[in-house]
Amino acid sequence: MRTENLEYSLGEMHFRGHFAYDDHKQGRRPGVLVVHEAWGLGEHAEERAEGLADAGFAALAVDMYGGGRQASSSAEGLQWTKALRADVPTLRARIRAAFDALRARAEVDPERIAAIGYCFGGTTALELARSGASVRGVVSFHGGPTTEMPAGPGQISAKIVSITGADDPFIPIYQVTAFIEEMKRAQADAQVMVYTGVQHAFTNPRADERGIPGLAYNRLADERSWTTMMQFFAEIFA
Amino acid sequence: MRTENLEYSLGEMHFRGHFAYDDHKQGRRPGVLVVHEAWGLGEHAEERAEGLADAGFAALAVDMYGGGRQASSSAEGLQWTKALRADVPTLRARIRAAFDALRARAEVDPERIAAIGYCFGGTTALELARSGASVRGVVSFHGGPTTEMPAGPGQISAKIVSITGADDPFIPIYQVTAFIEEMKRAQADAQVMVYTGVQHAFTNPRADERGIPGLAYNRLADERSWTTMMQFFAEIFA
Hints:
The structure is a homodimer. Chain A is an alpha/beta fold. The first copy, chain A, is built from 6 helices and 8 strands. An 8-stranded mixed beta sheet of chain A has the order 1-2-4-3-5-6-7-8, with helices on both faces. In chain A, strand 3 (29-35), helix 1 and strand 4 form a beta-alpha-beta unit. In chain A, helix 3 (88-103) crosses helix 4 (120-130). The longest helix of chain A has 18 residues, at 219-236. Chain A is globular. Chain A starts with a strand and ends with a helix. Chain A binds chain B through residues 166-167, 173, 177, 180, 183-184, 187-197, 224, 227-228, 231, 235, and chain B through 166-167, 173, 177, 180, 183-184, 187-197, 224, 227-228, 231, 235. Strand 8 of chain A pairs antiparallel with strand 8 of chain B.
């Protein structure tokens, strides 16, 4: 498996993603965008991209803040995501830039792209779907599912999986039901999953280290959701 | 694969289930109860039991009405389920009798049992879990998730998967959120899934023939939910 920095830009802004793929494999393979949590591109998203490369995909862990910036504190990370979620066109333009960068790679089949993300990254992956991008599928792991710019009928071509914890204090159940209503109105193909006994950031083994109440790693939920994603990829990339 | 009638009883009442297993296979294997829709034990549940037998399980398509009775009309079937849902102790006793009959079979590992069900059968499988039966897992397909006797903390040992359609007029979203709340209070391990674009009875290829608005087969939802069940069985029977 090979990893490299992948630089891309949007206007004056430059981004540094982490690209991973199996360099012993020939030909174009499905590509997967991996979008980080609020804290910026770091170990968690990079490891997931590498796991996807091991599984035969070409994966780009994207950089949503530019220059590979990481928040110096939890407060700063939350502030950054809040600003981007309030400015949906900018958020969509940034993930679109990453999408275009991944599609341009010779290793990648540009017709077979998916996007996944964690927390803020899940939110971002859903925004890529709402933008109407020709992405086959999106998986949001503990991502806030609501938006300032809900999708209208027929706007979403991507199939969607959203997985959240029933004990996630940042994603109350009314947000999940609002998301289901939005997806119904949009006539989107969405699978919305809620796991009981599961808090926010359940896929991140380092979640507990932040000392934020409501964040907790959950190995079983992490494994189940990863398996669900793989099953979903088998369907959309068939 | 071998199929046979399996007779069992509860007090004065006699039941005729449809038992399926691979008779070329040696030793005790996991057992799965399959509970029919409102109309009584028929082709749909029997075919699913046979599919499970093909996959290496010993499966009993149960008879919840006694004598293998099938409703002569949709109205009669709905009346029967309404009566049983209003009398939860009787409903639980009947599925418990089937559970005991399956566990008593020499082909079955009595410590590795799951229950699945469709519509009313999904409701019934969930009641088996609420009763505290030592079943490893329960999967409810388009089953009404609410009950007259909600589970208290620690009462449920089975892991649970509930899958419903967002366009199912018989299972409005508030029932799904009420179920999530019940499972949270019960401290149960539940995975609650809602598929958009999917109506009631989505697993039954004959659903549309009944001419009831809101019932519709959906091949993709049928396949996804079956795959999800198989993945769940791999986890609980590991």
